[in-house]
Design a protein that fits this description.
The protein is an all-alpha fold. Helix content is 66%, strand content 0%.
Length: 71
């Protein structure tokens, strides 16, 4: 994150990780950064283009992103 804060994947990972570890305020702040980087962001796209092969991991990630305020 320090080297490239403009990296969308890093911001998504930060958002999900913060949410999953109970740091909701940080997750919401990271989600706002996601929307700055990608104003047309969609969870549907994350579900369809995700690198995880395990659907449960995709569902966990998408749920964490949704709880952080992303749609």
């Amino acid at each position: 994150m320090k080297r490239n804060p403009q990296n969308l994947f890093s911001q998504l990972a930060l958002t999900a990780t913060c949410n999953l570890t109970g740091r909701e305020a940080e997750a919401r702040a990271a989600a706002k950064e996601v929307l700055k980087l990608s104003p047309n962001f969609s969870l549907e796209r994350v579900q369809n283009d995700n690198a995880f092969k395990d659907k449960s991991q995709i569902d966990l990630t998408v749920d964490a992103l949704r709880k952080a305020g992303l749609k």
